[in-house]
Design brief:
This protein is α/β, with parallel strands linked by helices. The chain has eleven helices and 15 strands.
Length: 385
């Protein structure tokens, strides 16, 4: 196990336990839950597997050094001392990303600049050549994290955020993040054992993530690149072996995944994204106004959607959310309906009592993810059976 090392997977608020469960199921060791992150232990192959296979991770970081900092000079001196030639050629390119939680160090951009100066000066002084900064496609992406007086330097193995799966070429006015969509489906407990519907599907993100979960398809197979592919120790054969192993664990799905949207352009975009993800066999998208639809058949339906919040789409919120409640109550018996919204006032207008409520964030907006259970017949009658 001498090839194992510690890693940190970053995630969204409220998804930490989901991510810990995913990591455990993938085979991670020493899984520990933090705030918006989960730390774990694995080898290089597991780092590749985590990037390819985790649905609720935003980044996989590989910490390489921690030290105490009191002044800016402490940052520079400690970074300068590190053996950067182990990770980067003098002619290579780098990018620095900083996050700070400190009363002393308050500007993350300044901290990133200080870190970059130390790395560049070290190369210039020891080799006469210096790496250049490339924010788009660096050979090495370095993450510096300061929490009060503790500074951790990590290599960013992912590069672009892992929500950029690679299938989404078309988006609408208020698209949902792919990691958020996957986490919502996992929070809702849907496991592919019933029909699934997103009645306001926009560009189809929830539908695609649901299909990948149902079929156990690794979420990041279609990404163009991970940052670790530019590392000095990049092992393409090992990566392909991991990829093949994950693909061998896909499974059949025998239910339907359906999307509705009343905007023809949204339907076009959703169909395009479903096609990009090669999931047309499992997902259908129709041009429908949810408020004019009703459930077909008596099979159990799992519904999950991200209705407009009124942040970017201008609608009459009270009336709109009231119509959601009416449509569910009158037209969708035998349905577990989940929705996420940051409009907590409008949520009161649904007129149904949620059976579950989970606090999450959609980007920076504090939101609630709520569940409404629509019984066949009345709830009272259901209890008497």
């Amino acid at each position: 196990m001498e090839n194992n090392f510690k890693m940190v997977a970053k995630t969204l608020f409220g998804f930490e336990e989901l991510l810990a469960k995913e990591l455990t199921q993938l085979g991670a060791l020493d899984v520990e839950i933090g705030v918006r992150n989960v730390s774990f232990v694995g080898d290089k192959g597991f780092m590749y597997k985590a990037n390819l296979g985790l649905r609720t991770a935003i980044k996989i970081l590989k910490p390489i050094r921690s030290f105490r900092v009191v002044t800016e000079q402490d940052i520079y001196d400690n970074v300068y001392k590190m053996q950067w030639e182990d990770y980067l050629k003098p002619t290579g390119t780098l990018a620095i990303d900083a996050t700070v939680n400190s009363d002393v160090f308050t500007h993350s951009l300044y901290i990133a600049q200080k870190t970059k100066d130390a790395i560049v000066d070290k190369f210039r002084n020891t080799t006469g050549t210096r790496p250049n900064v490339d924010l788009k496609f660096p050979d090495l992406k370095v993450n510096i994290h300061i929490d009060r007086q503790k500074c951790t330097i990590s290599l960013d193995s992912s590069g672009d955020s892992l929500h950029k799966r690679g299938y989404k070429t078309a988006t609408n006015i208020a698209p949902i993040n792919e990691v958020l969509a996957a986490g919502l489906i996992m929070h809702s407990g849907w496991d592919g054992q019933s029909d699934f519907m997103d009645p306001m599907c926009g560009s189809g993100t929830i539908l695609v993530e649901a299909a990948m979960i149902a079929c156990n398809i690794p979420p990041n197979l279609m990404r163009k690149e991970f940052a670790f592919e530019r590392w000095e120790d990049w092992d393409v054969e090992l990566f392909e072996k991991i990829e093949t192993s994950l693909l061998s664990k896909t499974r059949d799905f025998h239910h339907k995944i359906m999307g509705y949207d009343k905007s023809p352009s949204a339907v076009t975009k959703a169909l395009e994204n479903v096609k990009n993800a090669h999931l047309e066999e499992f997902v259908s998208v129709k041009h429908e106004d949810f408020f004019k639809t009703r459930k077909s058949g008596s099979e159990k339906l799992h519904m999950l959607f991200n209705p407009p919040y009124g942040e970017r789409l201008n609608i009459e919120m009270e009336e709109f959310y009231g119509s959601i409640g009416d449509t569910l109550k009158q037209n969708y018996p035998g349905t577990d309906a989940w929705l996420i919204t940051s409009n907590l006032e409008a949520l009161k207008c649904v007129g149904l009592r949620p059976s579950r409520k989970i606090k999450l964030f959609n980007a920076k907006l504090e939101s609630r993810f709520v569940k409404y259970v629509m019984y066949e017949g009345s709830k009272k009658a259901k209890k008497q059976v």
